[in-house]
Amino acid sequence: MRISLKYGFLGLGMGGTSIAHACASVRMKDHHPYKAILVNTNEIDLRKLPNMANMTKKMLRGYEKGVARDIDKGQEAFLEHKEDIAKLIESEFFDRELVFVCCGLGGGTGTGAVIEAARMLHQNGFAGRFGLILTLPRLNEGRTVLNNALQRLQIIQKAMKGLGSIIVVDNEKLYREYLQTHPDKAIGDFMRHCNHTVARLLHEINIVTASFNPLGTYHFDSSELLKMFQRSGCITFGKCEIPETAVNPNMPDSYMLPIRQSIGILSDGYDPEKATAAAISMTASPKEAKRIFTMTMLDEVTKLVNTPGMEEAPIAIYADDYASHLAVYTLFAGLPLPKRVVELTEAVVTGQRDDAEDEAALALAGYAAKKQEEKADLDTLLDEPMEKKKPKKNDDPFAFLN
Asked: Which domains does the chain have, with CATH numbers?
């Protein structure tokens, strides 16, 4: 097996380092093809991730106890160590063709650092060669977490046209699915499951585009995969495996229904018709491939990506000597943020409205509540979340913050 792209993963905070660690732990025969830099303030969280030769840990000294979900402190910690991190990126990622900034939105370190990390990559040789992997918090994680996530999403949404693809991982969706199939598992098992799901999906897509000979006239190759990841907006994936004996090419329901249901494996709430580019790669055993990949079958699959706004939509078919299932990988790129972001926003707004309408609580709180409100207003007025530093390049996607 071969890979198309050499990935690098810059993990920020507890959530981001966990994802980056899982991705860099992927093994091929006798080596690990990917590299990771793990950046965190909390020494305990960083230490519990096993050391590996293809990973480098960067402790943000002076903040060893963490930043208590304070995104301003998280950004401050990153900026204090910015030069050291830039040197690590230069030395560890010099041969990487694509770098993902990994961040669990909602905490302090990763959420606080993600914008400055994206700026750093953009301004230091990785413009057009990096993307973001962002996890959305669950609704029960509290107002602070939701507010932190939404503050950063506001900035990222405005800068999307200058960024590469954004992979959104919806923890709420994955949690509900995992709960149905593994009700007796611990929460730690769920988090490892999420991280490994991201790692396996990125790796498998990376393999399909490089390891098999195309059966048809088209091959979705390594350069096109890179181009897909370079496209601005969100990118969503699908993966389904159907026993080859269950596939009847003349009966679309035998394969189209599971293919459609698999789209949005990491996060849903996207409208595929809003994508600007898509790709579908399918593999089957050499014998069954001749039976399955008929003109009728390919015509049905083409309908998934046959939309007016689609600029590119290659469909590639391959024979895999070790396959026993029809495997279908779908990618839809250039999408806006998923509807899940709307739900998070509504949850925060509803919670704020409930507090404001609780007249009895306000009356009992009296003068103390008034002081708290004045402090909040002052903090808002004095808020300066981003350093006022002129970007090195005029095409800085975050220039509007300066």
From this structure: 7-205+373-401 (3.40.50.1440), 222-335 (3.30.1330.190)
